[in-house]
Amino acid sequence: MRRFIAAFMGLFALPALAAEGERITVTGEIIDTWCYYSGVMGGPDSVVGSAHHTCALWCSAAGIPIGLLAEDGTVYTILKLGAQDNATGGDTALRLASHTVTADGMFYARDGINYIIVEEVLEDFGIVNLTHEDYDVVPSFAIPEPKE
Amino acid sequence: MIRLAAAFALLAAPQFATVAFAQDFSTNSEARSWNLYAEVPALFEGKIIDVMCELTGDCPANCGDGERQLAILRSADDQIVMALKNNQAVFSGAVVDLLPYCGQTVTLDGLMIADKDFPIRNSYQVQRIKAADAEWATANQFTKVWAAENPDAKGKGPWFRRDPRINALIAADGYLGLGLEVDEAFKKYLFE
What is the per-residue pLDDT across A38-63, written as a single tens digit (0 to 9) for each? Predict the structure, then answer.
């Protein structure tokens, strides 16, 4: 009987357990989550990397959450990036937009969303995802046409 | 024993229903379509929270005063809904729109992005917010706040063409972020 009750109590405790943090090191690209999730600019492959770099700057500066797109396709919403409390819109986030980095931090998962609180960017590989070779620039007006 | 099992099953059922099945929050929503492939209108009540505070217990005053990402702790199922976007078509998030309601339970209307074939859950575009007996407020405060914070960036064109930090980065690294030499060659290909 005690085992039966304990099993049910364990099931009730699931959400709390899911929110406990775990130290991880992840390599991935710093992306703009809104464009990646919403498809507002096109498919997910077109809204990452160099093609989407200017838009990633705009979105980060304007407070849209940034994410870390890991090599296995997992997206971690970045809540903090190094010393800056504000991952999004901070100078570090802008400097690292579209960069592939190796980050060390605390991982949390809750209600279907993965989060990372980055304590340290261990390595910055720069922009290595050269998507402009396939997609030009996304959105198409990101680079203003030179005036005659 | 059977009665005890049934009682626990009844207690547990709502919790598992929220985990296993996405609820329909579209009733009474007046959210405007953005023609997004996976948009679903969603009107619901929830508490405005600082996500990092909710997850870690590190809770500065006033949800971090704009320095933290904000979300909604939905009343119906206690799930965190990430507020990714506000109602302006200018690449703007929702923090400045939600911050005045930090810690308050409000009603929100907007678009949920939901795609079972893509790893998206509880990602939301806030279009309007209603606190207690107040009127609906449109989530369009970003450009006003940006203008107040950047008084020297006046001029023609949208904010993102005039933002000093963005312009400094583009001047240094180009629109592709790959350096000015790559940028110039790409612009020749693009426009000539």
Answer: 999 999 999 999 999 999 999 999 99
Backbone angles phi, psi at B88, to 5 degrees: -100, 140
- Residue at B11 is within a domain: no
pLDDT tens-digit readout, B115-132: 888 878 899 999 999 999
Kindly state whether residues B187 and B104 are assigned to the same domain.
no
For residues B68 and B155, state if they share a domain. Answer: no
From A5's Cα to the closest Cα of chain B, the distance in A is: 9
Please, which residues 79-108 of chain B have a Cβ atom closer than 8 Å to chain A? Answer: 79-82, 84-85, 90-96
* Number of domains into which chain B is organized: 2
Please indicate, yes or no, if residue B54 is contained in any of the structural domains: yes
Are residue B51 and residue B114 in the same domain, yes or no? yes
Residue B105 inside a domain? The answer is yes
Q: Is residue B12 part of a domain?
A: no
Domain check: are B112 and B187 in the same one? no
Under the banding of pLDDT at 50, 70 and 90, the label for residue B80 is very high
Host domain of residue B93: 18-144
Sort out which chain B residues have CB atoms less than 8 A from A59's CB and list them.
Answer: 91, 93
Domain definitions of chain A by residue range: 24-135
Q: Give the N- to C-terminal CA distance of chain A in Å, as an integer.
A: 83
Q: Are A32 and A55 in contact (CB under 8 A)?
A: yes
Q: Are strands B70-74 and B120-131 parallel, antiparallel or unpaired?
A: unpaired
Backbone angles phi, psi at A17, to 5 degrees: -65, -40
